């Protein structure tokens, strides 16, 4: 083995590197449109050239691997930057721009970034401008206005540079990105993924979701999240086109589907509901759609039926985590009309899924346990947090913190977040089951169910509910509505009507805030 060649070129032969994905697609699909960003369209060849030029700039400034952050909304420039970072062998740190400046600052400092790619409009906001000034790091501006003729803009730093793939030695197992979790109970943790872990998820998605060069993929979810990022990366691997949007609008999405002939629509259940509720939906052209994908929440059966009737009959739930690059599991509700909306289905080709008890024992069908995964799409670990990494990867599996059970056909049913399971009167109650019953009431827009301290029941079920505009419902009416759908011990003991649920920047309900704020709700009850 000692006589094998060790040059950079020889080491490239068998490597797995995310920058190579775009490079190889550009060879195959050079003139095909890779990215649509409003009126701007980049072909595969243009995207490949620009990202290589940006990589050349980064390598001149930082010859050795460093962390490079993006502070951007979706744009063609952001896609250029991401691929340039990967081609340079640097580590991409996507930052959620919806976070408050203090959290953004925490991530940038904790990740030890060496430079930042930022939207010009965002960088000039007073609090962000103050933050960037205090960090005193190089900032490359993207989506820069016509007046930005000087300084570090993406256009300026790439102009005139070589468009060849940089001759960089990249190991398949080295870090490719650090993506921070939503931090529902404290500071976010940085999940470190290698080139190989993301690449394995991309190949699994090409297979599981049948991506081809004929596909046109929506990009209305933010690229700083793992779901939309891996959808974009999968599209670029397959030679498909990605249609970017800087946020969700039902009307804009309807227009984009018809104009760009989108084939894969990726959204949240609430987005699909908004599209179908739009006055233009009955006359909209959805004929190009071949697959409607959704994530983040269960989809009510009535919404599944509406999508199947009006938009596309092939509908799929996809799951994953920042720590376990998506897709991990998928479920097609139209093919399983008698299964609960909370089914997650079966694993992809790269992901093994099991259920485990607290002692590390794997469980069989019908038993309830924590959902655990293992496979090449798992993160390397949490950045600078070995204790948290050891905890989440104990017994040789990635622990999701979710509870589930396999049915007799091997289909996984999600029951609840482990921390959200309510223990009342000696019974375990899945909060998501109670929420499903509440949400079936026509007046309810959103709901969150938690267990609150109770002198007799240990925990009592309390529902926090947001009404739809111009709708009415009383506590007694909602509890009565739930009784036919739930067991007696599962029915809420109290209902609190609130203006809005506390949410993270990614839209996850912060139940710990509700628990803390209402912890004395049942304190006066007799034991």
TrEMBL record:
Pfam families: AMP-binding, AMP-binding_C. The keyword Ligase applies. It comes from the Bacteria. Keywords: Ligase. Its EC number is 6.2.1.26. GO terms for molecular function: o-succinylbenzoate-CoA ligase activity. PROSITE patterns: AMP_BINDING. This is Long-chain-fatty-acid-CoA ligase synthetase, AMP-dependent synthetase and ligase family. It comes from Cupriavidus taiwanensis (strain DSM 17343 / BCRC 17206 / CCUG 44338 / CIP 107171 / LMG 19424 / R1) (Ralstonia taiwanensis (strain LMG 19424)).
């Amino acid at each position: 083995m000692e006589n094998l060649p060790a040059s950079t070129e020889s080491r490239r032969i068998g490597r797995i590197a995310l920058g190579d994905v775009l490079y190889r697609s550009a060879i195959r699909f050079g003139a095909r449109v890779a990215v649509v960003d409003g009126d701007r369209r980049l072909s595969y060849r243009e995207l490949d050239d620009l990202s290589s030029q940006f990589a050349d700039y980064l390598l001149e400034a930082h010859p050795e691997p460093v962390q490079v952050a993006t502070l951007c909304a979706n744009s063609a420039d952001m896609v250029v930057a991401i691929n340039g970072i990967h081609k340079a062998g640097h580590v991409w740190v996507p930052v959620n721009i919806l976070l408050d400046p203090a959290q953004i600052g925490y991530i940038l400092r904790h990740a030890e970034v060496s430079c930042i790619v930022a939207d010009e409009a965002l960088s000039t906001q007073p609090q962000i401008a103050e933050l960037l000034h205090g960090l005193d790091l190089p900032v490359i501006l993207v989506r820069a206005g016509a007046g930005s003729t000087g300084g570090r803009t993406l256009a300026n730093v790439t102009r005139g540079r070589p468009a060849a793939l940089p001759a960089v030695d990249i190991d398949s197992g080295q870090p490719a990105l650090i993506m921070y979790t939503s931090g529902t109970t404290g500071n976010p943790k940085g999940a470190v993924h290698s080139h190989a872990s993301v690449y394995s998820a991309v190949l699994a998605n090409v297979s599981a979701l049948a991506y081809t060069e004929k596909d046109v993929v929506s990009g209305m979810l933010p690229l700083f999240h793992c779901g939309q990022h891996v959808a974009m990366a999968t599209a670029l691997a397959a030679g498909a086109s990605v249609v970017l949007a800087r946020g969700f609008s039902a009307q804009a999405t309807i227009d984009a589907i018809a104009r760009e002939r989108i084939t894969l629509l990726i959204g949240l259940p609430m987005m699909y509901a908004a599209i179908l509720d739009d006055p233009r939906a009955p006359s909209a052209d959805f004929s190009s759609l071949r697959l409607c994908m959704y994530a983040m929440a269960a989809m009510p059966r009535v919404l599944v039926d509406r999508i199947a009737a009006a938009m596309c009959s092939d509908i799929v739930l996809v799951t994953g985590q920042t720590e376990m690059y998506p897709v991990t599991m998928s479920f097609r509700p139209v093919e399983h009309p008698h299964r609960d909306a909370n089914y997650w289905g079966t694993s992809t080709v790269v992901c093994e899924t099991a259920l485990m008890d607290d002692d590390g024992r794997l469980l069989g069908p019908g038993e309830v346990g924590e959902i655990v995964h293992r496979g090449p799409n798992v993160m390397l670990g949490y950045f600078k947090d070995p204790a948290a990494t050891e905890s989440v990867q104990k017994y040789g599996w990635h622990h999701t913190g979710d509870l589930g059970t396999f049915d007799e056909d091997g289909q996984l049913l999600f029951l609840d977040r482990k921390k959200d399971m309510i223990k009342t009167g000696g019974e375990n109650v899945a909060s998501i089951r109670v929420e499903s019953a509440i949400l079936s009431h026509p007046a309810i827009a959103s709901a969150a169910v938690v267990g609150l301290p109770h002198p007799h029941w240990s925990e009592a079920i309390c529902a926090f509910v947001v009404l739809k505009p111009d709708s009415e419902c009383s506590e007694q009416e909602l509890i009565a509505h739930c009784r036919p759908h739930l067991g007696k011990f599962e029915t809420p003991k109290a209902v609190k009507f609130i203006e809005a649920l506390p949410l993270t920047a990614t839209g996850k309900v912060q139940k710990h805030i509700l628990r803390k704020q209402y912890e004395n709700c049942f304190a006066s009850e007799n034991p």
